[in-house]
Amino acid sequence: MAEPSTAADRIEAAIIRIEAAVAARAADARDLSTRHEALRARMAEAVAALDDVIARRPEE
């Protein structure tokens, strides 16, 4: 049978869980930032392409 944990053991376990959660959130934030930058670049390309189409349109 497992020996009862002390308050210090429980605090240490909680700290480990918190650090793991912080690391996971940081990784998620980096992934989101990367995806955001890629989307921003694609949108800039799309807007530039639309600008080109509009600029080539004959005046009526």
Chain-wise SSE layout:
Layout: H1 7-56
Would you tell me the overall average pLDDT?
92
**Poorly predicted segments:** none
> What's the β-strand tally?
0
Gyration radius (Cα, Å) is: 26 Å
Intertermini distance: 87 Å
Residues in helix, %: over 70%
Residues in β-strands, percent: under 5%
Order of helices and strands: H
Largest sheet: none
Structural class given helices, strands, pairing?
A: mainly alpha
Overall geometry = rod-shaped
Number of helices: 1
Structure notes:
By secondary structure, the protein is mostly helical. The protein has a domain at 26-60. The protein has one helix and no strands. It has one helix at residues 7-56. The longest helix has 50 residues, at 7-56. The radius of gyration is 26 Å and the shape is rod-shaped. The chain starts with 6 loop residues before the first helix and ends with a helix. The mean pLDDT is 92.
In short:
The protein is an all-alpha fold and 60 residues long. It has one helix at 7-56. It starts with 6 loop residues before the first helix and ends with a helix.
Fill in the keyword field for this structure.
60 residues, mainly alpha, 1 helix, rod-shaped
